[in-house]
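OP here, attaching both records as promised.
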Amino acid sequence: MFKRRKKEQMSGSERVRAARRRSQSGIYPADINIKGVALLTAVFVMLLTTLILCVKRVIRPVNAAGEINTESTVDIANEKLKKHISIDEVDITGMKMAEAKSAIKRVYPWKMKLHIDDNDSLELSNILDKKLDKLLGEIYSDIDKANTHYDISFDDGDIEEMVNEAKKKWDIPPQNGSISGFNKETKSFTYTHESDGFLIDENRLKGDLKSFTDRKDFQADILVVRNEAKPSVTEVSAKEKYKVIGTFTTKTTDNKDRNTNISLASEALDGLIIKPGEEFSFNNTTGNRTEERGYRPAGAYVNGVLSEEPGGGVCQVSSTLYNAVIFAGLTTTERHAHSYEPTYVTPGEDAMVSYDGYAGPDMKFVNTCDTAIAIRAVLTGQTLTCSIIGIPILEDGVSIEMESKKIADLDPPAPEYIEDKSLKRGKEVVISEAKKGSRWATTYIVKKNGSIIKEEPFHNSTYRGKPAKIKVNSQSETTSTSKSSVETSVGDTGGVKSDESLSKKNTETTLESTVEKIPTSDVLKNEVSKTEESVKQKESVEETVEKLTTEAATVEETVPKPED
């Protein structure tokens, strides 16, 4: 009470000094709500605790797929099995996971071997070990749902895995007589001689493995029988069976450089041997199409723009080969449509390629035959023919076709205008008409003796449209008149200067004669205004000249260079 009364009796300056002392000390006991701070702290602690509990609950040991995380695995591995469970004849009740696995392995040790003779044997991979890890993981991860008894069994997949190990070690496939090389001078193929092979008796080995694993005899040493295998194609029969199984022909233009590129790419392909299972790549086979390698600049589209590029025209080779591959019955693995509709093949049946030495759109296919195949690519005059040489894949009377149909027209781009001052003002001359883009659907058709036995969608191809190219003289009569006026003004620049000087002189004379007679400045204002207008007229003339000069330069820059 005394303090409050004393505070009320303090003067204004004393209260200011007291406030300054409190500010310097930073202590305002009266302003601090102790209960509020305590309440907020308690709420924060409770929220933090709840968040931690939620996070722990989210990170559970087992996910939806039944996989367990590292922390959970440690817990499971250290947990003793409280439920009564046995695996075959082994009771694993009360054991940890590692103890259970050791107990089973003591009863069923793995030492399974295969041998062909005393000096050639194979120790099989321990499949039992992997099966036990999986089985025990399932049991210990959810003990409540686990059964009380399990049997160790090997399925067909396990048996196949062991047989494949034996095949990898001992199988020597027979070698068929096959096409093996090409003599570019004589334009003839060479063939390899057939050779016998040795193959294990798979069925017998599968039966033996099944018998021993069913008896839980994992220490068996099984004899593997290997038989001699004869080739299905001899060298003599190969020479008789090999023939053209797919071919296609296109016509080239009379462009010498383009035909040079087509010839170089064809020579790179001609006589190429592709082994069974091997994938062919057009880009890897022909390499980078550069001038150093003899390729000539010719018409090619770069980012949708026609330009002279080394190797222009090689897409005709890839497209021709693509058709031959399809007709042979082989499987393509990569194919791309051109930017614009091709002229040498039906749209939808082309194969665009591009290569910078590292990557690019390619044309690829796989040899799915049991024997090697070869490519022939020959340019004669303006006729390009690509063929696949091999033993027929398709049955007698069976053929493959492609059928492509346009399914949509696409609007062409906006016209391209080319300024031409030689034309009359406002005149337009169409150099080339606009061409619509298109979308094509290609169908894969299989026929037997001329009748369709299979028909399915193959692929879709989209091609861009081309803009109309129009020559114009966009200069208007007003612009022309303005230009003439500017030229006249520029020719009479000296006159402008004389008029300006005369105007200034007259202004000075008028001012001197009227200073004493007229108390106001009306005349002076009029003369000054005339002078300003004269200066503005000069500036306007200079700006007009500069503007016309800039427009002329802009027109020259916008005229595109001629395209080949």
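Record two, same layout:
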Amino acid sequence: MIIDQGYDTMEGASGDDWIAVSQSMRAYLRFSLLGGVIANQIRALGYSARVHSVMDGEVLQPPLLLLSGLGEVSRIGEVVLNPLLGPRLKSGAVTTSMPMTHDKPIDFGLQNFCENCNKCARECPSGAITAGPKLMFNGYEIWKSDSQKCTNYRITNEGGAMCGRCMKTCPWNLEGLFAEAPFRWAAMKMPWAAKGLASLDDKLGNGSLNPIKKWWWDIGMFDEGPYEPPSAPVNKRQLQPELDLKYEDQTLAVYPAPLAPHPYPYPFPMDREKGIEAYRQMISAGEYRRRKKSGHKKAASPIHEYKVPEGLPPVIRVEISHVEKMSDDVTKYEFSTLNGSPLPQVMAGAHIDVVVAPEFLRQYSLSGDPADRTKYQIAVLREDLGKGGSLLMHRIFTKGRKVFISRPINHFELEKSADKHLLMGGGIGITPLIAMGHELHREGKDFEMHYSISSRSGAGFVDDLARVPWKSHVHLHVSDEGSRADLDKILGGHQPGHHFYTCGPDRYISAVLEAGERQGWNEEAMHREYFSVPDAPEWVNHDFILRIANNGTEFLVPADKSATDILTENGIHIDVKCSDGLCGVCKCDIVSGEVEHRDFVLSKAQRKNSIILCQSRAAAKNGVIEIEI
């Protein structure tokens, strides 16, 4: 089934302004309603039926639209055009066991028309639509668009929500009036007239902005607040008929199966250089036929076969098995596997990545007993002035919800050789230290826990810590009860073999570290983990050279990019997560060079041999850093 997005709204829009995504979602939701009615009627007849909507579908829609005769593939790319609606449609499907006579694919002359018209490519704000010929991709012939360019623009578009400008400006986006019937008939029946009809469409001003048809306000919800006008200017694009877009001037990339992201909701660095090369390797259908007829050994275009990456997947699907609100702002969550099998092993101090939503990948320290593999436990502080991840989590993470989490990652390990351990937690920073307490108690180690909070009512784990078998090791410091921690006294009497671990707000960690220095603790005995980026100096960026010791390759890292940016752009895989110098996954060994360390992970001793690439740079302009990857 296809649903009309609405001609009048599209005529009044730029195509990439604030109504764009609402217009799309309105059509998708309309199908969800109608699809449910149809499926329910089919089930009433005694057959099975399943609705496949935009939010919950298990089929690929474009092939089904083609096979059912609802349209043809267009120059826009994987967008199907219908002869009556053009591209301004949204689709849905119902699969059923009910016997049916199937429709057949249709040919209404669109392939010829699109070959003679590149209006969508000319008007595309991201330059993602090809102005060139159809090429062979994954075994079929298509005008292949640059999905990365398109996606980047849709996500970063500040003048609107998403983009549908190709649909807005396509000559087939007609109102459906009787007066337009001759144009549609000529486009279908007179192939030689296609170029002239495309030119006529421009002369008539079709696809231009019609402010009379605008019925909405350009408003958005920002930071979970009220609806308000956007700060950036709203897109109000007019046609550019004078623009002569040439295929040879375009740089496009494609991502066939071997370059495709893994099938997991987890970050994946796209290798654009390889994508550009893949586009250049595609051949036309005519060349494919000529090669095949001549018996050429490369008759077929490259075979694109996806292979599941070796090793374990980066995420695990789990169920939220327990939710407990410990205070107004702090909530405890526990995760268990769907089939009751043990979770991966954990070491105290580890954290997991939680996929809150596609745009929110958040790291949370594990606070449960590492020996208990039936569940992972975290605690989340709701930050009303944060970036939105914790607010969304507090709203939608309910018991029974299925979510994705990463395997445990540990950059905050216990020093096993230590004679005594001091666990210094401030507020929500107590979470990894609780796991450490469980492990140290089980191993019979000497340790103390000092938990600093503003008040009992606003803190998490107060009741939990009163029940743990090692509660005699816990010292609670409550500011509004006059028992604020005396850090110099706690850290006094330092002896070799003593180590402390601190986590919490930036100012708390700084206070603990400063007290440790005053009391003579050495750098290697002071361990810390930050939850957010601490205040840092006003760094000045400059260009520098990054040399890869493994093969001698050198890259210029400009002032406006990081070392990880340049490595990724050049097809060199490097794990990146926070990009703030906090998590430590992009750590590499230094071979030579003077480094300006800007991370919050490495100790002074570690900085002699390691670098956090997402933030740190050469200490001097045009300096050279040599690393091993």
